[in-house]
Amino acid sequence: MTNDQLPITIYQDEFLLAVNKPAGLPTLPDGYNRAAPCLIDLLKQQVGRVWVVHRLDRDTSGVIVLARTAEVHRALNIAFDAREVHKVYHAIVRGVPEWDEHLIDLPLRPDGDRRHRTVIDRAYGKPAVTRARVLERFAQHTLIEARPETGRTHQIRSHLAALDLPLAGDVLYGGQDVASLIQRTALHAHSIEFTHPVTRESVQLSAPYPEDFVLTLAQLRGQ
Question: What is 3-221's CATH number?
Fold first, then answer.
């Protein structure tokens, strides 16, 4: 594993750890290959045991927060359940919407088809809300800010695909795109904001774009 494939620490104290997770690194061990690298195992070697509060998909880069004690883990889980943690993602999508801001309120059901995708299901899906905002338009693509108000599996990917705006590089949800330099789902966890469960201070953290995201935007701006 090269240096650009290792997580970079963004914030650390005796209760919390936040890192910029690289794309291609799963949060938890692979059920089929326990020896494969994963974020939790790498961090355990560096700082000792950590508890997962929320996950990022293997191909998603960006900020992820972990607890360093069981008590903090419980407190953060409560905060997430109460929607007191605010996350912001940046996504490069295929397509150019006419709207500048859009509230996506579509119920989702995980593992809803033969390809194990999260699907829109108005009858049996769970409530899911994402606020989307255009950050930059290109010839055939758009940089979008997505603020999920719920935490469903593949929520942003499924919601944007439902608007005919699949993420670039997202083969599972229809975002194949040979014009893009990016070779993975173009989704980056840009920032997160929450109240520190011990100090009660406001914590605001952000993660810079990785190189493949930066190069893809540069390519799109040059078209």
Answer: 3.30.2350.10
